[in-house]
Design a protein that fits this description.
Largest sheet: 5 strands, antiparallel
Distance between the termini: 36 Å
CATH architecture of the largest domain: 2-Layer Sandwich
Order of helices and strands: EEHHHHEEEHHHHH
Strand content: 15-25%
Number of strands: 5
Strand order of the largest sheet: 2-1-5-4-3
CATH superfamily of the largest domain: PAS domain
């Protein structure tokens, strides 16, 4: 069996293609998977336990914006109800993901730090690309990680406080975060800071 499994979803997160590898690893056959929401089918959560793509999907938004979706950790449940930690990346289907996304998932059972395992046996299609953040968003996030307030960041960068808040707000969905603190933690975990 190939170490990488793949499946495709439409813009509404409904599975349109389910590979034999996905069947073997996740215990769900094609007929049980196709047409269902991948998030519901796998009870998918991010590395800190938040449901993925519950109301809106940051992954689709990033793909539509032409941004690279980096490797991320995915907590899933197989057909027997067993939890598993997977690594994933997503690729747009069609121009600006108009046809959906193709997900590649893989496991690494070796021991060691998550950061080291994240890069291990990564499919060629998921090699590190560019950060999903703009240089200014990265700069704002770096200063937030140092404990500066939005006022201090605005003063240091010579920009308005509302501009700092806008940058901070725009980077949240790009990282799949719901707060600034979570964004900092995810950025550090993903090697963006």
């Amino acid at each position: 069996m190939n170490d990488t499994i793949a499946f495709e979803v439409d813009p509404d997160n409904r599975i349109t293609s389910w590979s034999a590898e996905a069947e073997a690893l996740l215990g769900r056959d094609r007929t049980a998977a196709e047409g269902r929401s991948w998030v519901e089918l796998l009870a998918a959560r991010d590395a800190v336990g938040n449901r993925l793509c519950e109301q809106s999907c940051a992954l689709h938004a990033m793909a539509r914006a032409g941004e690279t979706i980096g490797v991320f950790e995915l907590l899933a449940t197989d057909a027997a109800g067993a939890s598993m930690r997977l690594f994933a990346c997503a690729q747009p289907l069609g121009v600006a993901a108009t046809q959906g996304l193709r997900f590649l998932l893989w496991q690494d059972r070796r021991r060691g730090s998550l950061e080291r395992r994240r890069g291990a046996k990564r499919p060629k299609e998921c090699r590190p690309g560019h950060s999903p953040l703009t240089p200014r968003e990265t700069e704002v996030l770096r200063l937030l990680s140092r404990g500066l307030t939005v006022e201090e960041i605005g003063e240091r960068l010579g920009i308005a406080v509302t501009t700092v808040r806008n940058h901070a707000q725009r980077l949240l969905p790009k990282l799949g975060a719901s707060s600034r603190v979570e964004a900092v933690a995810l950025a550090i975990r993903r090697g963006l800071l």
